[in-house]
Specification:
The protein has helices at 6-11, 16-26, 28-39, 51-62, 75-80, 140-156, 179-184, 232-250, 297-312, 338-352, 367-372, 387-390, 401-420, and strands at 68-72, 87-94, 100-106, 125-126, 129-131, 162-168, 192-195, 202-206, 208-217, 221-222, 264-272, 278-279, 282-291, 319-328, 358-361, 377-379, 398-400. The chain has 421 residues and is of the alpha/beta class. It is elongated, with a radius of gyration of 24 Å.
Length: 421
């Protein structure tokens, strides 16, 4: 008889949770191939032409009997968000009356960049690790969640509640044409939700993020007669120095949330000038300001604008344009997340053999959008203890396949308990 037959399992004193584990072990090669196929379709964001990946993911899901609703976002809204194409996927698995639990992973990724020793879109496996852009953040959790639900249905055969898989493609740009759009249009409204994360902690709070584009205007001139122009680069350097000085102040501000330290500011891009022998008439830079949960986003933005405009005014002939690119609020835990936290901690300890703490993280995610809509959520999925270990957003991003296997077991076990509760 099949080891996944319920009566056979009971005869051999297997618990339901052990049967879920056994199903996942038996199908893990298939799960790994599924993840490889997802990694092999690029989703660089920018530019954000991500509908092709959604169509491929829907095709792969259909092979399991999962019918994915395709929610294509209108072109005008996608372009307004700075992207090219977005189709979000929703898979609804209804077992009976009761709560709906949604599992959300995002497929968009930052471009690979330089320094890779593996094909960023190869899904290559070496020494028990799978390599590729989004191997760890977060195409892996398309796989975690899909196979957890498959195991749940094959073994636990739930008769109450529902599970929904939500796969979106704009987390890197703030979620406005992903979860926010779907919540606004009432496509989804679960009772509880889990979003892509790492395996060794369940995340209940996270930082906010403010991203701004600052353009410094001067006046172009020939480098041989620089006094006939206004150097936008020099003015930009003064502004940047003033902004960087804030980081020393931010280190004195401490968050009360375990896992989150202090605010900080990063300038990630700068561009300007026309040629080596020309005084630059324009310089543009983009900054990222991480906000701890205790901060007020409006006050943070107002302070940065004041610093920039005041410093620019110290340079004659200089003007600045400041544009907000992104405002992602911090995630603050809702009390209703307790069943999620308890289930993941319980089964995480069993499967991983160590305690799974509930922490905050300095990252920002789409979970805040659900919490703002009154839907309790946590962050948990496949991955190492830290972002640094996974090389997320760096060359040779990778995932230990054992973390994928074990996280899938934790999610399957947790769903089984939550739907039976």
């Amino acid at each position: 008889p099949s080891p996944f037959d319920l009566t056979f399992g009971l005869k051999n004193n297997m618990t339901k949770h052990q049967e879920l584990d056994a199903w996942i072990d038996a199908h893990f090669d298939e799960q790994t191939r599924f993840l490889q196929a997802l990694i092999q379709v690029p989703t660089d964001t920018p530019p954000g032409n991500n509908t092709p990946h959604a169509l491929r993911a829907a095709e792969l899901l259909s092979q399991f009997g999962f019918d994915a609703e395709k929610h294509e976002i209108p072109e005008a809204e996608v372009k307004a968000a700075g992207l090219q194409s977005i189709t979000n996927l929703v898979v609804r698995r209804k077992y009976g009356s009761g709560k709906t639990i949604l599992l959300n992973a995002h497929g968009d990724v930052v471009p690979p960049g330089e320094g890779w020793t593996h094909d960023p879109y190869g899904g290559e496996i070496e020494n028990g690790k799978i390599y590729g852009r989004a191997a760890a953040v977060s195409k892996c959790d398309f796989s975690t969640y899909a196979f957890a639900v498959r195991a749940l249905e094959a073994v636990a055969q739930p008769s109450a509640g529902s599970v929904e898989l939500l796969f979106t493609y704009d987390e890197e740009f703030g979620g406005e044409v992903g979860p926010a759009w779907l919540l606004k249009h009432k496509v989804i409204h679960p009772d509880l939700m889990i979003a892509a994360g790492f395996s060794y902690q369940v995340i209940t709070a996270h930082n906010g993020c403010l991203q701004m584009e600052v353009t410094v205007h001067g006046k172009m001139a020939h480098a041989a007669i620089p006094d006939s122009g206004v150097d936008a680069m020099q003015a930009a350097v003064r502004i940047l120095n003033a902004l960087y000085e804030q980081n020393a102040l931010y280190k004195k501000i401490k968050s009360d949330v375990e896992g989150i330290s202090h605010p900080y500011l990063n300038v990630g891009m700068i561009e300007g000038g026309t040629n080596t022998n020309v005084v630059p008439g324009r310089v543009t830079f983009k900054l990222d300001r991480r906000m701890i949960p205790e901060e007020n986003p409006a006050e943070v933005e107002a302070t940065l604008r004041k610093i920039i405009t005041y410093t620019a005014a110290q340079s004659a002939g200089v003007s600045v344009d400041i544009k907000r690119m992104l405002l992602a609020n911090a995630m603050r835990p809702l009390s209703g997340n307790k069943p999620l936290v308890e289930a993941i901690q319980k089964h995480g300890q069993t499967v991983f053999g160590e305690a799974i703490p509930a922490l905050g993280t300095p990252l920002y995610t789409d979970v805040r959008l659900f919490c703002e809509a009154g839907i309790p959520g946590v962050i948990y999925g496949a991955g190492p203890r830290t972002v640094l270990e996974s090389n997320a957003k760096r060359a040779d991003e990778n995932l230990n396949l054992e973390d994928l296997r074990r996280a899938t077991k934790v999610i399957a076990r947790s769903l089984s308990d939550l739907l039976a509760a």
